[in-house]
Amino acid sequence: MEKRKIIIDCDPGYDDSVAILLAGGSPAVEVLAVTTVAGNQTIEKVTNNARHVSSMAGLSVSVSMGATGPISGGQWETAGHVHGESGLDGVELSPIEVPLDTMTAVERIVDIVMTEPEGTVTLVPIGPLTNIARALEAEPRIVERVREVVLMGGAVHTGNVGPYSEFNVFTDPEAARVVFKAGWKVTMVGLDLTYQSEITPDVIADAVRLDNRAGKVLSQILMASNNSFHRNGHKGGSPVHDACAVAYVIDPTLIETVTVPVDVELKGELTRGMTVADFRRAGEEGCVTSVAMKLDQKRFWRTLIEAVRNLD
Ligand code: BDR
Ligand code: CA
Q: Is the pTM value of this prediction over 0.85?
């Protein structure tokens, strides 16, 4: 089986870290680069975390630092109340083996997409979409060369930072609109899907039973993520949002999607950052955007545990 080549654009973060471990351990994907964007924590912190976790995931990549704020200018608020002061509070980080790239995130994304054979690279953005929008601006030809974009972000029913807005899209809605409207194939793995990936006691037990270093880190991440979720007043298990996007690339049969036009609300007083899917036009021919709706939970968790088992 030919490995799917991916670039992970992320802001680790608990669930971003699960996504990186999943990608690193999966025989189905090859991670060409990890690029970072401020979001869950500051750019310095998420880049540091990305280097730690990429090292743990055995990736042969450099980590490229990206955007510190939205394309419209200014800074954005980080999500320290969710992922902690470090962005990965409660997780013992291993030594950093992965170097910091001399290229920026945008330069690295453009460089890879323009040098790899056309139609082979999949972008997996799992943070605010700023770097991807900037890469499109820097080199518009990446639209034709990218195989597809599989992003974690958005929601068609219920948001998490507002009634309809999800964090990654809300933090840079202008960038998100650029990405959704670019004309390339976009699969939105949003909250409608990712809330089906709640961490259960059984999943934690499976992670604890893994007797490798990465398994230990995975179980720490899952427990820390659940603790934070409960501290923030939620019940049940915390979802591992970002890992769902990587899982879809690894095995698209894990997730059911609906082809539907998606746009991003930029003006609404209550709805800025909402991803608006026009279900009247679901299944329309020529539509390149789709929304993830249903997760095969059992097989998703099995895929994650087996991937992490493959790591050191
Ligand atoms: C998204 O927001 C971040 O906090 C998570 O890492 C995920 O990418 C979920 O809304
Ligand atoms: Ca993220």
A: yes
